[in-house]
Amino acid sequence: MRLVDAARCYLGVKWRHIGRSRFGIDCVGLALLAARDMGHAVEDVAEYRRGAHGYDVVREIAARTQPASLAELREDLIILFRDGIYPCHCGILGTNAQGAWSLVHAHAKAGKVVEDPYAAWAAKATHAFALPDREG
Question: What is the CATH code for 3-130?
Fold first, then answer.
């Protein structure tokens, strides 16, 4: 199973800040649970405030993943997005049925996990990360 496919299993789940279950999930929780569903032993992120507050989310995700390039998109990347100056949102890159880039993410404004065209978010992308290869 790929990360984006694991994330799609959460489509429609209600958004909840610091949510970590099918009863409610946020963007970081979605990436975390999708990775765990694939068998990755990923440590949870410390409690965090809602919204953009410096580069804390970048540091936390970077500590659990490997850096990737926004110039070389591929499915399963965890992409971070800015709100104003600072990154504060993430989603998982995939492709839709038409072969266009898509973003699976828990979106507060939508109130749930959704899959949107990546083009609607690309201008706000700041960082890309990939899960490390599993050993064994």
Answer: 3.90.1720.10
What confidence tens digit (pLDDT) does each residue in 52-108 have? Answer: 667 788 888 999 999 999 999 999 999 999 988 889 899 999 999 999 999 999 999
**Per-residue DSSP letters for 68-120?**
E-TTS--TT-EEEEEETTEEEEEEEEEE-TTS-EEEEEEETTTTEEEEEEGGG
Phi, psi (rounded to 5 degrees) for 31: -60, -40
Whether the CB-CB separation of 93 and 81 falls below 8 Å is answered with: no
Sign of the dihedral defined by the CA atoms of residues 88, 55, 80, 85, in that order: positive
Sign, CA torsion 98/130/20/18: negative
Domain boundaries, the chain: 3-130
**Alpha-carbon span 136 to 80, nearest angstrom:** 29
